[in-house]
Amino acid sequence: MSPLPPDPVLRASLRWMDHLQHSSLARVQALFSSHTDYTDLTMTQYGAALEWLRRAKLVTEAGLPAIATNRTKLVLLQAAIAQSDPLWLQDADQLIIKPDDLPEDAATAGEVLGLNPRETLAAIRAAWGKVDTAARQKIGSAGEQALVRLLEDLGCLTITYVAEYSDGLGYDVAIACDGFHLNLEVKSTTRRGRLTIYLSRNEFDVMLADPQWRLVVVLLGQDQAIDSIGTIDTEWITRHAPVDTSLSGRWESVRLDVPHGVARNGITDLAEQVDEGHVIRTGAGVVRPSWLRA
User: Fold this and answer.
1) Measured at the alpha carbon of residue 163, what is the angle toward residues 158 and 165, in degrees to the nearest 5?
2) What pTM, to 2 d.p., does this model score?
3) Which of 129, 203, 250, 279 is 20 to 30 A from residue 65's alpha carbon, by CA?
């Protein structure tokens, strides 16, 4: 996390983006250094802006625009927010709902770039979506792998890491033992106190059709080790998922904000399948099979 770029750097970045669309890097540098319309900023500030644009991958090393857009101001603010990753960004979906909710630094940056409050809000939402999606993918994969390793430590299960070769089956990990099996859809988080999961329509439809389907939530701690595991009942998911009301419309993805107490501790269906001689190692230490029970 770092502060948003200073106002002069944002102004210089906008000028770079505008002029590099139709002129060479050398010609634009000469313009900025000699024309009185641009000497309100120093060449050091222009240089800092150009380096920032390169780090944000908006301009190539050769000075060519990496994107073609007529919404340069929005793109610049979105990139500035995503690059700086301010503390408020992770909760922007809940805390910043309307223009009156804009954080001071984002509001100021938007004004510097000539955006109105609604445009600034749109840039925040776009930046949050991009950062949130990337983070969820990374954390999701880490949680799946950590759960597979934990289950392997039991030594009494056949485990298939489905997500390694397919993302279309509606679950991530299949486990089996002497005729018993479960298909686990794994949702991972590193955040305590707030549990938000995203469920695709395919995952939801598989849940309805497959009695062995379970939604397992993994809380990751330091070094991406598992701190805790919970199971969310399919009945709760069904009650809170959207309902199609017309043949002309169909939901494809849903975000579920899961209240405290809804996720039951452990993978309860697995408890009776685990011999008492087995233990599980997590970030919190050695945990007995009874930990699997609610």
Assistant:
1) 95
2) 0.71
3) 129
Reported as type and span, the H/E element at residue 154 is: helix 117-154
Tally of CA atoms within 13 A in the half-sphere of 141 that contains its CB: 8
18-29 pLDDT, tens digit each: 999 889 999 999
The answer to whether the beta carbons of residues 151 and 159 sit under 8 Å apart is yes
Work out whether strand 195-200 and strand 213-220 pair parallel, antiparallel, or are unpaired: unpaired
The amino acid present at 82, given as its one-letter code, is A
Choice among 47-61, 165-179, 232-246 with the minimum mean pLDDT: 165-179
- 208 pLDDT higher than 90: yes
Bridge partner residues of 197 (DSSP): 256
Q: Find where tokens 């954080």 sit.
A: 103
Find, among 244, 220, 4, the residue nearest to 107 by Cα. 4
What token pair was written down for 259? 């209240």
Q: What b/e sequence results for 147-156 when a residue is b if at least 16 CB atoms lie within 10 Å of its CB, and e otherwise?
A: bbebbeebee
Hey, what are 114's tokens? 């000539």
Is the pLDDT at 182 greater than 90, yes or no?
A: yes
